[in-house]
Specification:
about 350 residues, alpha+beta, Beta-Lactamase, 6-stranded antiparallel sheet, two-stranded antiparallel sheet, about 15% strand
Length: about 350
């Protein structure tokens, strides 16, 4: 007679094994989906950042997005991801509240910016009004705040402009939660809903990524970037050149073993943040990257983008022990120049 428990165990083992084999592909697909989903929103934000000669508010908003996305990437538990999302949203929206969707009910989870941020225990109707529009349409919906829930708005105070926007968190083709945002009680404050949408979409994709890793368990392998050759022939000026070895190479993990655990973690976070910043430069400047590689003047072509991102990186990690790792320069060389520093030109300061 067939032992169903034994059969089930073997099936689970086989499925887990196959998932582990394809983890790298799954991660690449998630990264590609992030780029596709966020490009329309981020392009507008980055365009406004580039047109802001003084750095100002647009640069600050971009820095918030960068640091929040980095915090989300550093999280693996669902609660930590959502908490990082809320903290980031609070920087670009005066008031925000996250509700978990349970059938037709919205259960309060956490809030930021209200006179009383404790919304646990609050249960709202999600079958009608603004929330239902966001859930059914699977996209952000805006209207008068009272259309979300008149009792909730009355208790917390109507926003100064009377309006609110709700964002659905779609995870695995299901709306798992909704994010309520408004401009708060203080007159003339504005919420950056484009920024909120970037963070919300990225969080949904990262929640799916975290779910895959959780299913595979702690033994799931980490997928490293393919090794770059230290020398590679490249055609330039009519003759073959050998690419020089990478400069400003990042400190390998093994070299950090002698450091205290907390300091090691700072180095790892700095490296991930640097990668995120440089990935963003490459994503939205592909034609310039190609041009700079061809003319071997990448830094000249991308100077403004590189230096603004460097300032964002230095603001966060320049005063930490990770500064010695020179991770930002390393990622510029690795990601933008394919580990060939000469492609950046002689004026690259890294």
């Amino acid at each position: 007679m067939i032992d169903l428990n034994q059969l089930r165990a073997k099936v689970e083992e086989a499925v887990s094994s196959r998932l582990k084999e394809h983890l790298g592909q799954i991660q690449r697909e998630i990264a590609e989906q992030v780029a596709r989903d966020l490009e329309p929103v981020l392009s507008g934000i980055l365009a406004s950042r580039h047109s802001d000669s003084g750095g100002g508010q647009s640069s600050a908003a971009s820095g918030v997005l960068n640091s929040t996305i980095a915090s989300i990437q550093e999280s693996s538990a669902q609660a930590d991801i959502l908490r990082a999302l809320l903290e980031g949203v609070a920087a670009v929206s005066p008031r925000a509240a996250l509700f978990v969707v349970r059938g037709n009910t919205l259960a309060g989870w956490q809030a930021r910016g209200f006179s009383d941020d404790n919304i646990r225990g609050i249960s709202l109707d999600g079958s009608s009004g603004l929330a239902a529009r966001a859930i059914n349409g699977r996209s952000r919906a805006s209207a008068g705040a009272a259309e979300f829930d008149s009792a909730f708005v009355e208790r917390q105070g109507n926003p100064w402009d009377g309006n609110a926007t709700v964002f659905p968190l779609v995870v695995k083709d299901k709306v798992a939660a909704v994010l309520y945002c408004d401009s708060g009680r203080e007159p003339n404050r504005q919420a950056d809903y484009s920024g909120v949408e970037v963070l919300t979409r990225f969080s949904c994709l990262w929640l799916e990524h975290a779910a895959v890793k959780k299913h595979l368990g702690p033994s799931a392998p980490e997928v490293a970037a393919p090794a770059q050759p230290t020398t590679a022939p490249s055609q330039a000026h009519g003759h073959v050149q050998q690419s020089p070895p990478p400069v400003s190479a990042p400190v390998p993990d093994a070299a950090l073993d002698h450091l205290p655990a907390e300091e090691q973690e700072v180095h790892k976070k700095a490296r991930r943040f640097a990668k995120l910043l440089v990935d963003e430069i490459k994503l939205y400047n592909q034609s310039k990257v190609a041009e700079g590689k061809q003319n071997r003047d990448l830094y000249k072509v991308l100077r403004e983008d590189i230096e603004k991102s460097r300032a964002t990186y230095d603001k966060r990690y320049g005063g930490t022990p990770a500064a010695s790792g020179r991770y930002f320069d390393s990622e510029v060389v690795r990601i933008l120049a394919d580990n060939d520093r000469s492609l950046l030109g002689s004026d690259f300061p890294g």
